[in-house]
Every structure is written in C-alpha cells, then in structure tokens.
Amino acid sequence: MTQTSVASSPQKAAQQTITQIGKQARSASRLLMTASDADKSAALLAIADLLEKNAQQLKEENAKDLAAAKENGLGAALVDRLTLSDRVIANMATGLRQIAAMPDPVGSQTASTIRPNGMRVGQMRVPLGVIGIIYESRPNVTIDAAALCLKSGNAVVLRGGSEAYHSNQALGAIIKQGLDQAGLPAHAAQVIDTTDRAVVGQLVTQTDYIDVIIPRGGRGLIERLSAEATVPLLKHLDGNCHLYIDVAADLDKAHDVAVNAKTYRYGICGTMETLLVHQDIAANILPRLAKTLQEKGVTLKGCEKTRALLNDATVEAATDVDWATEYLDAILAIRIVNDIDQAIEHITQWGSGHTESIVTENLEAATQFQREVDSSSVYVNLPTCFADGFEYGLGAEIGISTNRLHARGPVGLEGLTTLKWVLTGNGQLRG
Description:
The chain is an alpha/beta fold. The protein has helices spanning about 5-35, 35-55, 55-70, 75-80, 85-100, 140-150, 165-180, 200-205, 220-230, 250-265, 280-295, 305-310, 320-325, 340-350, 365-370; strands at about 115, 120-125, 130-135, 155-160, 190, 210-215, 240-245, 270-280, 300, 315, 330-335, 355-360, 375-380, 400, 410, 415-425. α2 (about 35-55) runs antiparallel to α5, α2 crosses α7 and α6 runs parallel beside α7.
C-alpha cells in the first residue's frame, strides 16, 4: 500500500461516517417538520425522566471522563465544565421540562398585510433543517442542544469533545430512548461516536445534508471551523466580558455585582474578565473589592494606576494580552479609566462582542452604555454571569451568538427557526 493511500483511508472513513449520519439526519428532519408539538414535548419529558432515573449511571460514565481529564492535567475550570453533578443533572431535567412547556415556534405566523389586490402576505416560522453542533468540555450541551433542536423541529448532529466522550455517549443513548418512547425518528438527534478529528472537517463541509453549524468552544476551534467550513456557521466566540463601575455607582451594589460577576463560576463564557473603574471612585471601591476577590483566590492584574492604588506587590502588571484574554480562571484584569467614554472605548477595542455591564445610578450613563456598547448583551446593574439562555427565560440555549446576522446573544427556540413567506389569494392574476 502506498503512503498516499494509507494517509487517505482515515479521511475516507470519516467522510463515509458523516455522509451516512447526514443522510439519516436529513431523513429525520423531514419527519420532524410535521411532528406535532405534543409528540416533540413528550420526547423531551421522557428524556427528562430518563436522566433522573439513570443519574447514577451517568455519573459513573462521567467519572471516567473526569479521571482522564485530571490525568491529562486539565485546569480546574475545564474540569468544572466537564462535571455531571447531581445539580447539573437536575438542571438539565428542569431545562427539558421548561422547553417542553414553551410555545412551539414552528408554524407560527407574523401579522399579515392585505395588498391592494386583496392578496394576503405574511411570514411563517419553519425549522432550519439539520443542525450540526460542535462543542468542547460541557456534556450538558448534549442535552440542551438536542432539546432546543427537537422542540424547534430540527434534526441535530452532535459532536462533543473527546474529553467528554463517555458522558456524551451515555446522554446520547438516553436521548434515543426518549425519542423512541415518543414515536419520533431515532436519527433526529445523533451523537457522533468517534473522537476522530477528521469527522469535524467532514461535518462542516456536508452542504448536502447539514444546513448550519453551531460551534461552541475556544477561539482555536472557531478559527479552524471558520477557515474550513462551507456550511454556514452560527458562531459562539469567546466571552471576554467587561464590567464598568461608573462614577455614579452605588458602591455596595457595585462590590456585590463585581464579585458575583467574577466568582459565580470561572469556567462560563459570561464570567467577567476585565473590570473597568471610574477614576473618581476607584479609591473608594477598589481596595475593598480587591480584598474580597483575593480572599476568594482571584489573581489580580492591573494597569499602572490600579497597581499604585492597591499595592504593586499583590497586583501583577496587566498587558495588552490580558485585556484581550478570556481567562476562564480565577484571574481578573483591572483598569482605572477617565470616564464612561474611555470605558466604552476599551470595550470596543478589546471586547469579543459577548456581554458587558455598567453599574450606575445615573440613567443618562446607563442609556449611553446600552446604546453605544456593541455587544450581543448589554446590562445595567447586573453581573455578566447572567449571560445564559435559562436566565433569559429561553428554557436553555444552543449557544451565545456573537454574529450580527440571523441570531445574536443566547440562541433559543426562535433562533433555531427561519421565516418563509406565505401568500394567500383568491385567483388574483398579475397584470
């Protein structure tokens, strides 16, 4: 056998695998388009019950992934994302039941208009078709993504990271069992059962069978897929999130919001990574805030003014790399700014377009911040860790899109549909 044929055989195997999965997904998507809301919801409720019934088995499979993660030196934040605790399993089941109870977007119509000739013109929501989701670390995405896709009438192909292989396979088996109980096609939600990286390259070029790819992962994954994909991407970029404490902030409120924004969970994309503080109130809030954060184990990196105010010995010097970094760890960059305009300028230069927040009691400042900061979510007097579809009332989310087109911010049911025009007449002719 030649070296070329040896090298091409894994690629060919990956192509065959994804082509077969794609065909099955396309066939299932046609059935899902006409499935009743009652049947789709029944599947979600069955999956929720099965999650609770099989919680111990899930944790045992997850333990295999956790053991491998620790052996491979994964950081604490990534291990946290990977863990299927009792709380995480309970939250997944709750999310499934909430999504099941939500109105089905498929088939809903916008208000129609009547043209001068009596023709009625409107739009109807329809599924996107087949969605491919590529994600890392977090096995709960398997359930959240499958639930949202099924409820919105889409077939889904799920490719989780190798670090969550055992957890994802166990969850995939539960999803199939729930689909079967509800009488829906087994291939409506497929979890790819190989860790071969070549299948990712095949998945993102399957334009005959996949309608959109939703990647959830780090910048490296997004950059790879952006370069290779021929299927449209609905991108979830990194969350370099900012909190700005304005001169008109309530300092007690600002302290609590900032601490929660950073320490609620370090491994989520809505975690505050940079704190911006107005120079006129920095001396009144930063020492107390820094003390609280450091007591919680957060490493601080600051601009020159921050280090001078706090203590050069306990605060590392921040560089441009820090302003641009999504740490996903117990690290926080701090910058003292001249005013709200400089805060917005900093976010514009260094932010990833994810989630930003201002703490202020000044309505004019709040309005300016929400109007001028160009991110998918912009808050007033709230921690950035609220960046989550569940908290937005969406039941769950497929990801937080930093795209400008189609869907932006947490993508729930409506974001997984598109619109088609529907016209009704009574024999009108175009003259």
